């Protein structure tokens, strides 16, 4: 009797730093178990193997910034049963979405002597702007714990348990002293989705929003609190214009503040 | 006349997106192009008008594989301009977290990305069937490197603790001591792995090139020091722009860098070893001798041996730092920004990474330039292919493709070190 077919896992990269897919290889204790449970069908960072689609699970890293990539993501969607956007680039356009409010041609001129050789879209956009995304794993980078929870859940056919509450809640649960209240430090914890383990406040610094806005993020109230502790409008703007600058409601709030 | 073009798309087991195009005419090699089609992300443009203290967190995002390199090159650039002297223990912590990145990155490349080529496996998972102990050793070492970065930096990818002037928080001595046993075990693993890779078959291939690395004369280079080369270069970081020039090649998708008057050069493990061998720690030096690496290693395929030796070095260095560590009274120095040009450089696992920032009196960035290791090695990789491929051109296409990939992987290229890396309107060759 043939053993049951293992699910096929593919890992795709668009505009990104490779850090989120590296998270999979960083599961040192679990890696050999993971490859026991799935067939790594396509993961160029790790293997020469390239099995043809369709794929049961596709992890998609990076944002869409070129016309070819806009075409390629359609193909990935067609070939994938479950498509998961992993990381800030794939879920919000990433830090490179800072170009969205600028003139790409000016940007290209700043970096390249021959900007005319560069083909790039005006905006860096998340995957869900182009295709249906089944799940999102947030973060810059994603959390190893969340990745393992996600893979385990999907393989077991249950819903993954991923938080939608804020970093503040995570921070309180860890018993950390609030950096805003105790030190007057600027912090995006109140408007950022949990998942990192509140590492920045644990090291005595404010959160800078790697996991993007949480479900009920109230950015106006956040701005008011930051102003109250002496964080200037320009500093608030720079915080909003960070890792997840194009995500709502951060983008709207930064527009409001820049008026 | 028979002209053939081989296109080896989507190089695997490298970070980021690249491909190689070979052109042959009458069975002879007529052209080689390493194409890097990573989409542009314009870091140098959006760093403008940001505050200097945000820069390490931003440049980190250039590369998820070597974030510490970017954070360190940025932070040291501003520290040097602002006249900040790091507390000696803070400096030790910077070296420790960087050593963690070397251990993690080298263990990954040696065991999971490069070794499978030498043994004919498609990847480390397949290799785990024939070489289970080696794969497990690699994973254990990688984990120790990540444990250092997590303890000192908060997490292994894009750590959050490095700031201009030092750290946000410094670990206690007891916390660092929790790493000691696993580092000691990793040292034994690293020696076994160095002996394991020394048994591989290496093609005879010794191209002549110039090697460039940092040097400070007292320790094997990670950060701080001058830039030196095997052709006699010896300059301060601030002189980088007078000696090295970046240029854009239409086919190459990324800015190249050349040593003015000398041409292509090589950065990375071979460069560090060839220029700083005498500064290796005892076990690393002993194993380098045992492996008969000699004064200079010029065969790029043997970079895997030097990475194995550097892994031993980084483990010994970590143990030394942990044993001598005392928690500093303040994790971060106080400073005031001054206007000027900031130069910073550090030795990423895959080679020297240079940063230059023009800074205003209020500490804002007016201009940024980042020269990643892989853009410096690009021309060298192409030249290796040009010199090496004629001898293997007779191989069937699938074998040829694999050999070409292996030769590219010699450089552990990090194509996502993406500051300048781009896709262009491609012209067919």
Describe the protein in words:
The complex is a heterodimer of chains A (259) and B (429). Chain A is an alpha/beta fold. In chain A, 37% of the residues lie in helices and 10% in strands. The N and C termini of chain A lie far apart (69 Å). Chain A contains 12 helices and 5 strands. Chain A has a 5-stranded parallel β-sheet with strand order 2-1-3-4-5. In chain A, helix 11 runs antiparallel to helix 12. In chain A, helix 3 links the parallel strand 3 and strand 4. Chain B is globular, with a radius of gyration of 21 Å. Helices cover 42% and strands 18% of the residues of chain B. Chain B has a 4-stranded mixed β-sheet. In chain B, helix 4 packs antiparallel against helix 6 and helix 6 crosses helix 8. Chain B is built from 14 helices and 14 strands. Chain B has 429 residues and is of the alpha+beta class.
Mean pLDDT of chain B: 90
β-sheet strand percentage of chain A? 5-15%
Uncertain regions spanning at least 5 consecutive residues of chain B:
416-429
Radius of gyration of chain A (CA) equals 20 Å
Oligomer: heterodimer
Order of helices and strands of chain A: EHHEEHEHHEHHHHHHH
Tell me about the largest β-sheet of chain A. 5 strands, parallel
Taking strands numbered 1, 2, ... along the chain, how are they ordered across the largest sheet of chain B?
8-7-6-11
Q: Beta-strand percentage of chain B?
A: 15-25%
Pairing-aware structural class of the strands and helices of chain B? alpha+beta
How many strand elements of chain B?
Answer: 14
What percent of residues of chain A adopt helix (DSSP H or I)?
25-40%
Q: Main β-sheet of chain B, in a few words?
A: 4 strands, mixed
Order of adjacent strands in the largest pleated sheet of chain A = 2-1-3-4-5
What is the β-strand count of chain A? 5
Total number of helical segments of chain A? Answer: 12
Structural class of chain A: alpha/beta
């Amino acid at each position: 009797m043939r053993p049951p077919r293992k699910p096929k896992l593919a890992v795709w990269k668009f505009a990104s730093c490779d850090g989120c897919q590296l998270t999979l290889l960083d599961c040192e204790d679990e890696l050999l178990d993971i490859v026991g449970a799935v067939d790594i069908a396509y993961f160029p960072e790790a293997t020469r193997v390239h099995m043809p689609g369709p794929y049961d699970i596709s992890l998609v890293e990076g944002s869409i910034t070129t016309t070819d990539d806009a075409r390629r993501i359609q193909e990935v969607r067609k070939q994938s049963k479950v498509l998961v956007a992993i990381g800030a680039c794939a879920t919000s356009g990433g830090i490179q979405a800072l170009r969205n409010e600028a003139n790409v041609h000016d940007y290209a001129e700043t970096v390249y002597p021959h900007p005319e050789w560069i083909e790039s879209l005006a905006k860096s956009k998340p995957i869900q702007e182009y295709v249906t995304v089944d799940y999102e794993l947030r973060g810059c980078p994603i959390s190893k714990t969340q990745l393992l929870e996600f893979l385990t859940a999907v393989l077991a056919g249950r819903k993954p348990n991923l938080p939608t509450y804020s970093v503040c809640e995570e921070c309180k649960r860890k018993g950390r002293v609030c950096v805003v209240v105790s030190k007057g430090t600027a912090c995006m914890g109140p408007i950022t989705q949990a998942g990192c383990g509140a590492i920045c406040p644990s090291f005595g610094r404010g959160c800078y929003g790697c996991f993007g806005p949480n479900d009920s993020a109230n950015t106006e109230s956040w701005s008011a609190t930051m102003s109250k502790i002496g964080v200037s409008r320009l500093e608030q703007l720079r915080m909003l214009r960070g890792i997840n600058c194009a995500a709502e409601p951060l983008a709207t709030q930064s527009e409001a503040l820049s008026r | 006349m028979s002209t053939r073009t081989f296109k080896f798309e989507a190089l695997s087991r490298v970070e980021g997106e690249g491909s190689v195009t070979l052109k042959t005419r009458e069975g002879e090699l007529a052209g080689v192009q390493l194409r890097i089609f990573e989409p542009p992300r314009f870091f140098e443009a959006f760093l403008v008008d940001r505050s200097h203290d945000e820069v390490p967190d931003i440049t980190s995002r250039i590369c998820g594989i070597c974030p510490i390199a970017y954070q360190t090159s940025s932070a040291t650039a501003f520290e040097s301009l602002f006249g900040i002297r790091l507390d000696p223990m803070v400096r030790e912590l910077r070296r420790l977290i960087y050593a963690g990145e070397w251990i993690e990155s080298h263990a990954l490349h040696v065991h999971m990305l490069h070794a499978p080529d030498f043994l004919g496996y498609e990847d480390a998972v397949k290799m785990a069937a024939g070489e289970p102990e080696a794969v497990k050793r690699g994973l254990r070492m990688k984990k120790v490197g990540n444990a250092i970065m997590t303890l000192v930096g908060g997490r292994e990818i894009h750590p959050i603790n490095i700031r201009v002037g030092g750290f946000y928080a410094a670990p206690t001595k007891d916390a660092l001591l929790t790493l000691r046993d696993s580092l000691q075990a990793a040292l034994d693993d690293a020696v076994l792995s160095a002996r394991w890779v020394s048994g591989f078959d290496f093609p005879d291939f010794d191209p002549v090139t110039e090697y460039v690395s940092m040097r400070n004369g007292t320790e094997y280079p990670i950060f701080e020091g001058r830039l030196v080369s095997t052709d006699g270069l010896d300059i301060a970081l601030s002189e980088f722009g007078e000696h090295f020039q970046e240029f854009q090649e239409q086919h190459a998708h990324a800015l190249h860098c050349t040593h003015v008057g000398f041409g292509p050069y090589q950065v990375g493990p071979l460069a560090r070893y060839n220029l700083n061998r005498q500064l290796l720690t005892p076990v690393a030096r002993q194993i380098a001798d045992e492996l008969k690496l000699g004064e200079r290693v010029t065969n790029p395929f043997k970079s895997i041996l030097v990475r194995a030796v550097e892994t031993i070095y980084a483990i010994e260095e970590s143990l030394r730092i942990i044993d001598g560590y005392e928690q500093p009274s303040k994790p971060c120095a106080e400073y005031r920004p001054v206007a000027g040009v900031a130069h910073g450089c550090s030795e990423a696992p895959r080679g020297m990474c240079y940063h230059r920032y023009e800074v205003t009196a209020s500490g804002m960035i007016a201009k940024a330039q980042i020269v990643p290791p892989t853009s410096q090695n690009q021309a060298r990789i192409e030249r290796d292919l040009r010199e090496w491929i004629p001898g293997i051109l007779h191989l069937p296409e699938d074998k040829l493709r694999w050999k070409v990939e292996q030769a590219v992987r010699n450089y552990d290229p990090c194509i996502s070190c993406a500051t300048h890396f781009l896709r262009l309107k491609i012209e067919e060759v």
